[in-house]
C-alpha cells in the first residue's frame, strides 16, 4: 500500500473500517450485515471509533427506515450531541422530564420483578429503552442459541471478537495454572466448531453427488 502512495494514516483508517466491517458481519444478524455491506469506509470508521456503542444500532434503524446509510456528517452530528437518535436536529425545550418517564412505562407493563431488576441494571450501564428491547430480540433469536440472557446479549452486541479474545487471554494469564478449565472449554468449543464444519462439508458433498 505504501508503494501505491498511501500514507500510514490512510492505511490505519482503512484497516479500522475493515475490522469493523468484519465485526458487523460476524454478528450474523441481518440488520448488521446490511449495514456493513452498504456503509463506506468512512462511515464504518466513524462507528468503529465512536465512544457511543448505540450509534451503530441507530444507524441500522435509520438504514431500515430510509433505505440508505446515514451520512458521516450526521453520524458525527449525533456524536457531538447536535442530532438525536433519528439523526434529526436536537430539540432541547420540547421534551420535559415527565415525558421520558411516560415513554418508558410500556417496558414495565408485563415485567416480572426479576426482569425489572435486569432492566434497571442495564439502564445503569447506559442502555436505553430501545437498546434493551433490541437485546431482548437477540435473546429470542433462534439463530443465536448461545445468547441466553440480556447480559450476554449486551456483551455480544457491544464487543468485537478481538476484545472478547483479549478478555479470555487476560483471564488465562490471571488464573495461571488454575486456568485449565478455561483452556479445556476453549478446546471443546474449537472441537465442536471443527466437527460442525466437517459435517457441513460432508452434507454438501453428499447433496452434490445426489444432484449430479
**Cα-to-Cα separation, first versus last residue:** 44 Å
Q: Which class of secondary structure composition applies to the elements? A: mainly alpha
- Number of DSSP strands? 0
Q: Quickly count the domains.
A: 3
- What is the average of the pLDDT values? 78
Extract low-pLDDT stretches.
Answer: 93-107
What's the SSE pattern? Answer: HHHHHHHHHHH
Give the percentage of residues in beta strands: under 5%
Total number of helical segments?
Answer: 11
What characteristic shape results from the CA principal axes?
globular
Largest sheet at a glance? Answer: none
- Please bin the fraction of helical residues: over 70%
* Rg, Å, rounded: 21 Å
If you had to describe this structure to a student in words, what would you say it looks like?
This protein has 212 residues and is mostly helical. It folds into three domains: 1-93, no CATH class; 95-158, no CATH class; 163-211, no CATH class. It is 71% helix and 0% strand. The chain has eleven helices and no strands. It is globular. Residues 93-107 have low confidence and may be disordered.
Amino acid at each position: 500500500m505504501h508503494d501505491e502512495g498511501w500514507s500510514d494514516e490512510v492505511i490505519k483508517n482503512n484497516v479500522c473500517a475493515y475490522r469493523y466491517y468484519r465485526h458487523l458481519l460476524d454478528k450474523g444478524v441481518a440488520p448488521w450485515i446490511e449495514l456493513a455491506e452498504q456503509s463506506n469506509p468512512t462511515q464504518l470508521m466513524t462507528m468503529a471509533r465512536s465512544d457511543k456503542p448505540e450509534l451503530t444500532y441507530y444507524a441500522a434503524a435509520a438504514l431500515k427506515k430510509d433505505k440508505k446509510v446515514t451520512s458521516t456528517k450526521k453520524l458525527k452530528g449525533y456524536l457531538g450531541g447536535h442530532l438525536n437518535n433519528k439523526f434529526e436536529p436536537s430539540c432541547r425545550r420540547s421534551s420535559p422530564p415527565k415525558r421520558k418517564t411516560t415513554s418508558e412505562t410500556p417496558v414495565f407493563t408485563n415485567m416480572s420483578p426479576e426482569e425489572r431488576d435486569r432492566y434497571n441494571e442495564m439502564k445503569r450501564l447506559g442502555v436505553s429503552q430501545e437498546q434493551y428491547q433490541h437485546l431482548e430480540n437477540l435473546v429470542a433469536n433462534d439463530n443465536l442459541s448461545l445468547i441466553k440472557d440480556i447480559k450476554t446479549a449486551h456483551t455480544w452486541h457491544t464487543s468485537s471478537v478481538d476484545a472478547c479474545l483479549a478478555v479470555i487471554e487476560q483471564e488465562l494469564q490471571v488464573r495461571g495454572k488454575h486456568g485449565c478449565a478455561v483452556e479445556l472449554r476453549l478446546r471443546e468449543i474449537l472441537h465442536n466448531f471443527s466437527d460442525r464444519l466437517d459435517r457441513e462439508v460432508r452434507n454438501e458433498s453428499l447433496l452434490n453427488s445426489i444432484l449430479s
